[in-house]
Amino acid sequence: MKAFILDRYGSALRFGDMPEPELRDDEVLVQIHAAGVNPVDSKIRDGEFKLILPARLPRILGNDLAGIVLRVGARVRRFKPGDEVYASAPTERIGAFTELIAIQEGALAIKPKNLTMEEAASIPLVGLTAWQALVERANLKAGQKALIHAGAGGVGTFAIQLAKHLGATVATTTSTANVELVKSLGADVVIDYKKDAFEAILRDYDVVLNSLGTDTLEKSLRVLKPGGKLISISGPPDPAFAKQIGASWPLQLVMGRLSARIRKQEKSHRVEYSFLFMRVNGDQLREITSLIEAGVIRPVIDQVFPFERTNDALAYVETGRSKGKVVIKVR
């Protein structure tokens, strides 16, 4: 099968042939029609996660996918050949930039009926990230206030809509060019970061979802009320995350040092900091499907690239200028 393959960290992906995946008893073989592109794909390519997520090279990259079930393993009960499905692949079995993937049943969900394959492929990673941040970890409730950084990005466009559905007042940061986009998604307060400093305007927020750098992370502490929660998907990783992934004791110490500064500040501000690395979850993806089919959340797609231009799609995402998601049309 054709695939985009990482031969060594830091290099462009090679377009070539790989053997078809072997199907385990708890897995589903999916013919991929579309694959989502995320900033994490470039980070994996460049080796940023190789200490915490080691992998044998060569490997196929890509997390998000939508496609059609071809075969199922002996223990699979929820899916059958012909089902249209979507998923974010488990970390140890990523590989969506290809024609076929074997994926655990528990990671999959039936594709929303009102979405195309390309639209569906844009959802899983950002949808699960927003869900795990706002629903699972923050327990965001009606009447609370949430700040979603980078509101025009992949996670931001989804998180704004989810937070509004949960009944929160939503603030977001974005550039001048994207103000109208984030307003159309439901943002109540829009901070144009080219004109204003969010930390000088916002006060007494319950939740901040951060996807930006350390400077923004530390400024975000100032907008939270005592007891508020600062959840970051861009780091630094904390000791709780180290335990979650079963990191070695030396690696736990390293992560503790990386997050020591922000954890010291969280105590002085009387708020709670945590690092979130999305985990795959088919049950949560089914909840997201219900919201999409009900019209509560809509995908936001910037561009769809043909399969052979996968490296171009990655490069475009790396510019940081995409609105919503970038998708690869595989079939």
From TrEMBL:
It comes from the Bacteria. One of its GO terms (molecular function) is zinc ion binding. The keyword Oxidoreductase applies. Pfam families: ADH_N, ADH_zinc_N_2. Keywords: Oxidoreductase. InterPro entries: ADH-like_N, ER, GroES-like_sf, NAD(P)-bd_dom_sf, Quin_OxRdtase/zeta-crystal_CS, YIM1/Zinc_Alcohol_DH_Fams. Transmembrane segments: none annotated. PROSITE patterns: QOR_ZETA_CRYSTAL. Signal peptide: none annotated. Residues 10-328 form the Enoyl reductase (ER) domain. This is Zinc-type alcohol dehydrogenase-like protein. It comes from Terricaulis silvestris.
